Amino acid sequence: MATISFLIPPVPSTTKLTSLTNPPKPTFQSLKPSTSFHHFSKLAHLPIALNPKEPKRLFAVAEETASAAPSDEAARRLYIGNIPRTVDNEELRRIVEEHGAVEKAEVMYDKYSGRSRRFAFVTMRTVEDAEAAIEKLNGTQIGGREIKVNITEKPLAAVDLSFLQSEEVQFIDSPHKVYVGNLAKTVTTDTLKKFFSQKGKVLSAKVSRVPGTSKSTGFGFVTFSSEENAETAISSFNNSLLEGQHIRVNKAT
């Protein structure tokens, strides 16, 4: 018994045993009819507030939908290269529409000479239409020229694009200008300028590029301070070798 009395401490004299065996029952107080409930209207949003994952999921879905559009358009946009200069937007559309629905066909023209740059962009209605056009048209001939058809290049980073825009702005146009064709893809604007500076005073030079990319279109322009220098360049460099390829040099129109 001594052991038991040690384990169970004695009940303080100030506490009645009845309070332990018969605890008081809880009491409830009803609200008076006059009690106002207007402040409970703020709880109407609780189902959303208590489930924060739902709004986040909705945001994620919206974000995925927004990001899907640009990638889908990029997968439907075709680059068509080496087309004849006589092919315009309508003729190109008719050719491509034989293999799928076309939303837009746009031949690129040089802003100085007004001549076709021998390439175009075509946006197909669906990705399947784009894939079918590539399969059927890539490597075929239009007007005796073998064309290249593929998905357009990925855009450059902003810093690279700014550099190319700066290169375009720095180009000095002149009535004494020559067109240089069949350029190797490795030829840069500086290479072109240094090469033609061997036979005359070059004002400016530029390699034409596929819009929004660093990819050369295979031709460029060089401007001179006089007509005599331009004529000398044509007679000296037409059909000459530049980085492994025979270039074509003639008067830019």
UniProtKB/TrEMBL annotation:
This is Small ribosomal subunit protein cS22. It comes from Rhizophora mucronata (Asiatic mangrove). InterPro entries: Euk_RNA-bind_prot, Nucleotide-bd_a/b_plait_sf, RBD_domain_sf, RRM_dom, RRM_euk-type. It is found in: Plastid, Chloroplast. PANTHER family: OS02G0815200 PROTEIN, SMALL RIBOSOMAL SUBUNIT PROTEIN CS22. GO terms for cellular component: chloroplast thylakoid membrane; ribonucleoprotein complex; ribosome. GO terms for biological process: chloroplast rRNA processing. Residues 76-154, 176-253 form the RRM domain. The keyword Transit peptide applies. GO terms for molecular function: mRNA binding; rRNA binding. Belongs to the chloroplast-specific ribosomal protein cS22 family.
